[in-house]
Design goal:
alpha/beta
């Protein structure tokens, strides 16, 4: 975990400035408008992701630890490593919040890393996967006849993986996990004709790529950046990057967004035009129809004159 985070830490301190040269209270408001406050509270954060579904990973881990320490001494080393890894993945990211706050208070800085590091807490479920595997191997080694059902278990798992993207599995632990759902594409999408796999936004993104100037600036979904290769302003995803890279720009984003939310249509268009915006992509017909240049389903493309 430490080695994995090292490039991020080196890049952060090598490329960003932690000195406070802006209104810190205003920065905090901008930060909280983008990142929920529980990212700054390790206890609340862990309560957010630990749920009944987590038992699917916790029970195998506890079972394997008990099995290793009470029945199979040769398994103790692996069990100890998994236990230590689980504890470390919870404690180290949690401590980072308090360490960062202490450094900022002591040196009057504004280091902004802990809200990213705390996400590593969620990796604490990974040892549960290994524990489940080790338990399965122990069962297979102890009961050779169980090897006969292994192919059927494997086939059953593959079938589950194939259909795991269906809504009926949304609340089933392990099946709803990203690891399971990302192995194969959704079965319902595989047999669709290519043109039916595109939703309204996908089709509009292709239109934008083919029919707008390369240096055009958009106000709309952050996905326009990757789907159409165009610049986007005032989107929430882009603001997240500014938290670490450019706090002053984040504050400006926050203040401008407050203005945009208060403006009515005509004034909003004037404001966006003053900020260099050329196009607006909206999922509803909320702007002057005279500005509409293209419509696909619920996607409306407006050009600011």
């Amino acid at each position: 975990m430490i080695l994995g985070a090292l490039p991020f830490v080196i890049t952060y301190f090598g490329k960003t400035d932690s000195l406070v040269q802006y209104d810190l209270a205003l920065f905090q408001k901008a930060f909280n408008s983008r990142i929920p406050q529980y990212f700054s509270d390790p206890i609340v954060f862990i309560k957010k992701w630990v749920s009944f579904k987590s038992l699917f990973f916790i029970i195998p881990l506890i079972s394997y630890i008990c099995y290793a320490f009470f029945w199979r001494k040769e398994e103790r080393k692996k069990a100890s490593i998994l236990l230590l890894l689980t504890i470390s993945l919870i404690i180290i990211p949690s401590i980072s919040v308090y360490v960062e706050n202490s450094i900022n208070d002591l040196f009057s800085t504004n280091i902004r890393m802990a809200f990213q590091i705390i996400r590593v807490q969620k990796l604490a479920i990974v040892p549960g996967f290994f524990a489940l595997g080790f338990l399965s191997l122990s069962v297979l080694n102890s009961y050779p006849k169980a090897n006969k059902v292994l192919p059927w278990i494997t086939i059953s798992y593959i079938i589950i993986v194939i259909f795991s993207n269906q809504k009926m599995f949304n609340n089933i632990p392990f099946v709803l996990d990203d690891i399971t759902r990302n192995i194969y594409p959704s079965i319902s999408e595989v047999f669709k004709p290519s043109n039916e796999k595109l939703n309204d936004f996908d089709k509009m993104a292709l239109y934008i790529d083919d029919n707008t100037q390369k240096d055009a600036v958009f106000y709309g979904s952050y996905m326009i950046r990757s789907a159409s290769k165009r610049s986007v302003v005032y989107d929430r995803k882009g603001a997240s990057i500014l938290i670490e890279g450019n706090p002053k720009a984040l504050i400006n984003w926050y203040l401008d967004m407050k203005i945009i939310k208060q403006l009515k249509e005509a004034k909003k268009i004037e404001f966006l035009k003053s900020k260099g915006v050329n196009y607006i992509l909206s999922s509803n017909n909320s702007f002057n129809s005279n500005l509409l240049v293209h419509k696909i389903g619920n996607q409306h493309l407006y050009k600011i004159q």
